[in-house]
Amino acid sequence: MSTPDTRPAGSRPVDNEVVPLRHPGRIVAAVILLALAAWFIIGALTKDAYGWDTYVDYLFDSRIAEAALHTLALTVLAMAIGIILGAVMAVLRMSPNPVMRGFSWVYLWIFRGTPVYVQLVFWGLLGSIYHSISVGFAEVSVEGFLKNFFVLAFVGLGLNESAYMAEIVRAGVQSVPEGQTEASKALGMTWWQTMRRTVLPQAMRIIIPPTGNELISMLKTTSLVIAVPYAGEIYGRSTDIAYAMFDPVPMLLVAATWYLAITSILMVGQHYLEKYYSRGSSRTLTSRQLAAMTDAEGIPPANVKIVGPGTPGVSDDDKKGNR
Asked: Which residues form the ABC transmembrane type-1 domain (predicted)?
């Protein structure tokens, strides 16, 4: 005989107590992974070939610290070129003009279809191809510019990066519904006002995460500028020191440590930047939205968070983001 349901009308059923399943395989796998990690770490710490004494001596060497600044400069300048030129190429790619659209497509095809190392080698050899540029009534010497390997390094990296940033920007802009643009035009906004106030704030949620990944990737890609050749960044400087000592392993560990440290800082910055541009995209409901759902379902939903005046633990920014 079944037990009669004594719950009041409109209430939700009480959840059953669920006993979690045991997963012994996961425990065994975790133990094996921890054992392998401990075995590798202990073996590395006790092996003389790693040269930990040399590693400690050169970790904060002034030459490596200066090379880290050069690496950051290359990264920032290359990303600036990549973002600005990539945005321009994205606009050309979405242009109704077939010439502009075709030019953008060919640009992306070349710079995405060839390895960045090959491009950097080409930029390094550009000085042997061009000595001056004729502009019709005069000749402009470019030898001084093409001998500056630092400039060639970040220009080559930036042009390669712009091809990838163009696709990222295009994807972000095209993710915004057309109705948003049409509504902005109906309100009398200009094209620039529509992009600045309507399209870009929404597109940034799509653009920021892959751009952060590209920035971190660019930091590591700077190790390839030795192809220009430019050896003033972290990998190039640590390699020069290693060749002088005939001991490459500890200097590679020094370079890896610096890359990891800078990358970790950039990842933290990326996290907070993504959090900033994701405001207003949470599933937290205001009191008005909750009332509308209650009227539709007959009972308050159990899987939502209520936000309203007087709700404890809710900041003013959260309330504004859900209006």
From this structure: 68-272
What are the Cα distances from residue 192, in Å, to 126, 186, 200, 205, 286?
38, 14, 10, 19, 32
Give the integer Cα–Cα distance in Å for 148 and 174.
39
In angstroms, the CA 274 to CA 57 distance is 38
DSSP states of 180-215 as a string? HHHHHHHTT--HHHHIIIIIHHHHHHHHHHHHHHHH
CA proximity to 224, closest of 160, 128, 157: 157
How do residues 65-84 score in pLDDT, each as one tens digit?
999 999 999 999 999 999 99
Cβ proximity of 108 and 168 under 8 Å: no
Please compute the mean of the pLDDT values over residues 306-315 and round it to a whole number. Answer: 51
Q: What letter does residue 305 receive in the DSSP assignment?
A: -
* Positions of CATH 1.10.3720.10 in the chain: 61-277
Whether the pTM exceeds 0.90: the reply is no
- Please name the fold of domain 61-277: MetI-like fold (1.10.3720)
Return d(Cα 170, Cα 162) in angstroms, integer: 12
**For the segment 145-195, what is each residue's pLDDT rounded down to a tens digit?**
788 899 999 999 999 999 999 999 988 888 888 888 888 888 888 877 887
| Residue 134 β-bridge partners | 139
The span from the CA of 71 to the CA of 269, in Å, is 18
